[in-house]
């Protein structure tokens, strides 16, 4: 079955009026897209900011009368959109289409992250089996990749790891597969905690080696290795908490930091950690450091 979509260029103040109108005209779905490649970082809690130049896409079944839809839009909302384009969308096997984008990826020397539907490229490597899900963390984002490469380069044998902001659990599970003894995954999002346990199970991790909790429930565990891929704002607020959860001389890796935020995050951690030079990938930064023995 084919579909028809209409794309409207508009501004945030007109978007809900147009969205309602498209639905009234029979759209099965309306999607909001960035019309000018404008990143939106770290929105304030409870806010849903929109891009300055917005593209609304209304999806209609193939039998929709698009001339009538356009006439209706022009009658009811002339001036609310600057341009429109009508396109036919060929139906596809959407699940397969999406799966085609995920391939096994190597991080550092030993570690691979492999989706379950692809063949493992190297049976002798450390293979983390992971499928994309609701929680963040597949390895495709540079911040996750930076942390995975760092973990791969550490001596993980017998180490206690804390994965602060665990998302899918990718960093903690990688640590266990690389030889860590135990991981504590911490997250504010219940879906992330569930995904972490689920993904650990898929990788045959012994349940006694992994524990998950919300930040307010953090047990009295000190990390030999602390890894936190969140965002600059929360990382700065969490500096003392993260320091208090890290053993003297324990190792730290932080990511989720934009290049221009490097100095602020470094300054927040310097009271407790000897910080090392930043590593940058695609505009994102990884910071690392060693917990000071005493402060
Ligand atoms: C960018 S994702 C990282 C996921 C995964 N660790 C990775 O590297 O791909 C950040 C995660 O941190 C969690 N998070 C955000 N703020 C947090 C906070 N204050 N304390 C704990 N977790 C937090 C989010 O729910 C999200 O799952």
CATH architecture of the largest domain: 3-Layer(aba) Sandwich
Could you tell me the number of beta strands?
15
In round numbers, the mean pLDDT is: 93
CATH class label of the largest domain = Alpha Beta
Cα radius of gyration in angstroms: 23 Å
Order of H and E elements? EHEEHEHEEEHEHEHEEHHEHEEE
Which band does the percent of strand residues land in? 25-35%
Structural class: alpha/beta
Bound molecules: S-adenosylmethionine
CATH homologous superfamily descriptor of the largest domain: Vaccinia Virus protein VP39
Q: How much helical structure, as a percent, in the residues? A: 25-40%
Q: Largest sheet, described in full? A: 8 strands, mixed
Tell me the domain tally: 2
Number of contiguous helices? 9
Give the overall form.
elongated
Termini separation = 66 Å
Structure description:
This protein is an alpha/beta fold and 295 residues long. It has two domains: 3-91, Alpha-Beta Plaits (2-Layer Sandwich), CATH 3.30.70; 104-291, Vaccinia Virus protein VP39 (Rossmann fold). The protein has nine helices and 15 strands. The strands form three sheets. Strands 8, 9, 10, 11, 12, 13, 14 and 15 form an eight-stranded mixed β-sheet that branches. Strands 2-3-1-4 form a four-stranded antiparallel β-sheet, covered by helices on one side. Helix 4 (142-152) runs parallel beside helix 5 (170-177). The model has no long low-confidence stretch (mean pLDDT 93). S-adenosylmethionine binds next to helix 4 and helix 5.
């Amino acid at each position: 079955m084919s579909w028809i979509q209409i794309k409207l260029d508009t501004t945030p103040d007109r978007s809900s009026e147009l969205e309602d109108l498209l639905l009234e005209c029979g759209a099965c779905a309306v999607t909001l897209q960035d019309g000018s490649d404008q990143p939106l970082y770290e929105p304030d809690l409870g806010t849903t900011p929109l891009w300055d130049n917005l593209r609304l896409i209304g999806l209609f079944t193939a039998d929709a009368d698009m001339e009538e839809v356009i006439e209706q839009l022009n009658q009811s909302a002339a001036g609310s959109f600057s341009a429109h384009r009508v396109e036919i969308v060929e139906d596809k096997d959407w699940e397969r289409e999406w799966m085609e984008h995920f391939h096994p990826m190597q991080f550092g020397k030993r570690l691979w992250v492999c989706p379950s539907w692809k063949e493992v490229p190297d049976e002798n490597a450390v293979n983390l089996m992971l499928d994309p899900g609701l929680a963040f963390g597949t390895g495709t984002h540079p911040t996750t990749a930076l942390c995975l490469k760092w973990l791969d380069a550490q001596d993980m044998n017998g180490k206690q790891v804390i994965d602060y902001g665990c998302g899918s659990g990718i960093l903690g599970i990688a640590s266990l597969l690389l030889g860590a003894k135990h991981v504590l995954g911490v997250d504010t999002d219940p879906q992330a905690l569930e995904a972490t346990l689920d993904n650990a199970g898929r990788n045959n991790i012994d349940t006694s080696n992994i524990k998950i909790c919300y930040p307010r429930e953090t047990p009295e565990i000190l990390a030999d290795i602390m890894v936190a891929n969140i965002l600059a704002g929360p990382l700065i607020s969490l500096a003392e908490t993260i320091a208090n959860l890290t053993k003297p001389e324990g190792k730290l890796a932080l990511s989720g930091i934009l290049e221009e935020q490097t100095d602020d995050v470094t300054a927040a951690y310097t009271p407790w950690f000897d910080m090392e030079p930043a590593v940058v990938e695609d505009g994102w930064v990884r910071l690392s450091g060693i917990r000071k023995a005493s402060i």
